[in-house]
């Protein structure tokens, strides 16, 4: 990259765009995210020096989060899970379905 290598100067979009305009990057090597970015530009430019919003971040807890934390704390060894097959449940999913069934009773 012939320009500044400091991340704080310009956005990733402006730097990749300048590489395309200068010919350092071929047009056919244009990243897919750039096409999406140009079609749907953000409301505010994602710059390093932009002020952060003052809204506090909400904590998000699901009902199984505490159960999952306790499960993984107590289980020292978990069997491997085949992620290619969607119909096979993980050890925690099996445990949680039994946990919910017991909790309903």
Question: What does the model show?
Answer:
By secondary structure, the chain is an all-alpha fold. The chain has helices spanning 12-22, 32-39, 65-74, 91-104. The chain folds into 2 domains: 1-50, no CATH class; 61-76 and 89-104, no CATH class. The longest helix has 14 residues, at 91-104. One of its GO terms (biological process) is translation. InterPro entries: mS23_dom, mS23_dom_met, Ribosomal_mS23_met.
User: What is the helix/strand order?
Assistant: HHHH
- Mean pLDDT figure: 87
The number of strands is 0
Class from helix and strand fractions: mainly alpha
Kindly state the percentage of residues in helix.
40-55%
- Tally of structural domains: 2
- Report the C-alpha radius of gyration, rounded: 24 Å
CA(first)-CA(last) distance: 64 Å
**Count of discrete alpha- or pi-helical segments spanning 4 or more residues:** 4
Low-confidence stretches: none
Largest sheet: none
Choose one word for the global shape: elongated
Q: Please state roughly what percent of the residues sit in beta strands, choosing from under 5%, 5-15%, 15-25%, 25-35%, 35-45% or over 45%.
A: under 5%
Keywords: Mitochondrion, Ribonucleoprotein, Ribosomal protein
Domain Small ribosomal subunit protein mS23 conserved: 2-104
InterPro entries: mS23_dom, mS23_dom_met, Ribosomal_mS23_met
GO biological process, one term: translation
């Amino acid at each position: 990259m012939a320009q500044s290598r400091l991340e704080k100067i310009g956005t990733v979009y402006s730097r990749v765009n300048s590489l395309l305009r200068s010919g350092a990057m071929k047009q056919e090597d244009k990243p897919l995210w750039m096409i999406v970015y140009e079609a749907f530009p953000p409301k505010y430019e994602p710059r390093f020096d932009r002020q952060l919003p003052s809204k506090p971040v909400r904590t998000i807890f699901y009902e199984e989060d505490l159960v999952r934390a306790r499960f993984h704390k107590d289980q020292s060894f978990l069997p491997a899970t085949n992620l290619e097959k969607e119909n096979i449940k993980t050890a925690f999913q099996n445990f949680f379905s039994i946990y919910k069934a017991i909790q309903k009773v």
